[in-house]
Design brief:
This is C2H2-type domain-containing protein. It is found in: Nucleus. Its main location: nucleus. The chain is α+β, with helices and mostly antiparallel strands. It folds into four domains: about 80 residues, 2-Layer Sandwich (Double Stranded RNA Binding Domain); about 50 residues, Double Stranded RNA Binding Domain, CATH 3.30.160.60; about 55 residues, Classic Zinc Finger (Double Stranded RNA Binding Domain, 2-Layer Sandwich), CATH 3.30.160; about 80 residues, 2-Layer Sandwich (Double Stranded RNA Binding Domain), CATH 3.30.160.60. It is built from eleven helices and 26 strands. Strand 3 and strand 4 form a beta hairpin. The N and C termini lie far apart (about 95 Å).
Length: about 375
């Protein structure tokens, strides 16, 4: 490795230090310090300047005369203030001689250089594993001790690593700091963003590296082949906590759970109609486009009728087939359309959600309300 020369030049305050709380006027001078730092290629001297008070050296931790001009933080040593200042300026004075990376702190450069040398000075006392960074060793040691010092304040979960703990907290806050530069989709984990970005690359190239071992289908993403394989195995690992239904995909479970909660998070920007599924919103938005163009791409094979969306064609085809898939759980009646079943079920429950705004009458069906309102208008 070529000789590494690191020079740390620390600026000093351009005005004389005054500490009114101590009532002491300090006499100052600047001394040059040399600190030996060990690297793989040898030992090098790091030079820095330090302001020294002759009459009263700051020794107490409570004494913090060096204050940051950009925030409220104060420090007992000027060089600590200088290091902190880089969090505001973004300055990275320590550059690796073997690559383009630069760092704010010298110890970060030292740790980085081990990625070039392969040096791992921190060895586990319980096993043979060694690490380039001290923090990596600390995190590893917890696999032996079982220690989980990072506890979530919103649930009972605890974690051995701070990074895992922070990622978990986003499940409570909903924070998604990692955003795709191409489609602006956001993720709570950096690894999820990296996986997602590959889908853009594979869309351009047409690459589908994941092939099903039981059929010829191929996929661009690993999670898609995992979900597909459940169509062969019949596995349904995602179970609803409110009923006995289970699903092969987590997204299917989330969509189903909205049938219990009534949540409809996907809203149309044109008519403000809301949907429980994103796919339903997408289908609905096409009806607006086709209303403008007059397009009706879905044609009945048994008659000449055509429809602007697929669901209306399916409903229409039941008039030919006589199919009635929506059955009442309280009697033998069945219906071709879901909303007809809902109207019928109110004859059992007695529910009357359609209320007249001009009198106290209420109705189980909207059509009955409309008919009644005409008695007010004449």
């Amino acid at each position: 490795m070529s000789e590494l020369q690191i020079k740390e030049e620390i600026e000093v305050l351009d005005e004389q230090l005054k500490i009114q709380s101590f009532g002491i006027k300090l006499k100052e001078e600047i001394e040059i310090y040399e600190e030996p730092i060990a690297f793989t290629g040898g030992i090098y001297l790091v030079k820095y300047e330090k302001m020294v008070d002759i009459d009263h050296q700051v020794t107490s931790i409570e004494e913090k005369p060096y204050q940051c001009r950009q925030c409220d933080k104060a420090f007992s040593r000027n060089r600590d203030r200088i290091k902190h200042k880089r969090t505001h300026t973004g300055e990275k004075p320590y550059q690796c001689p073997q690559c383009d990376k630069a760092f704010k702190q010298m110890f970060n450069l030292i740790e980085h250089q081990r990625t070039h040398t392969g040096e791992k000075p921190y060895q586990c006392s319980h096993c043979n594993q060694a690490f380039a960074q001290k923090n990596s060793l600390k995190n590893h040691m917890r696999t032996h001790t079982g220690e989980k010092p990072y506890q979530c304040g919103q649930c009972d979960k605890a974690f051995s690593q701070n990074s895992t703990f922070k990622t978990h907290q986003r499940t409570h806050t909903g924070e998604k700091p990692y955003q795709c530069g191409q489609c602006h989709k956001a993720f709570s984990r950096n690894s999820s963003l990296t996986t997602h970005q590959k889908t853009h690359q594979r869309t351009q190239t047409g690459e589908k590296p994941y092939q099903c071992s039981q059929c010829d289908k191929t996929f661009s993403q690993k999670n898609n082949i995992i979900e597909h394989q459940r169509t062969h195995s019949g596995e349904k690992p995602y179970q609803c906590s409110l009923c006995d239904r289970s699903f092969s995909q987590n997204t299917s479970l989330k969509n189903h759970q909205r049938t219990h909660t009534g949540e409809k998070p996907y809203q149309c920007g044109q008519c403000h109609k809301a949907f429980s599924r994103n796919s339903s919103l997408t289908t609905h938005q096409k009806t607006h486009q086709r209303t403008q163009t007059g397009e009706k791409p879905y044609q009945c094979s048994q008659c000449n009728k055509a429809f602007s969306d697929k669901i209306n064609l399916i409903k229409h085809q039941r008039t030919h087939s006589g199919e009635k898939p929506y059955q009442c759980s309280q009697c033998d009646r069945a219906f071709a359309l879901n909303y007809n079943l809902k109207d019928h079920q109110r004859t059992h429950t007695g529910e009357k959600p359609y209320k007249c705004s001009q009198c106290d009458k209420a109705f189980s069906q909207n059509s009955n309300l409309i008919r009644h309102q005409k008695t007010h208008t004449g």
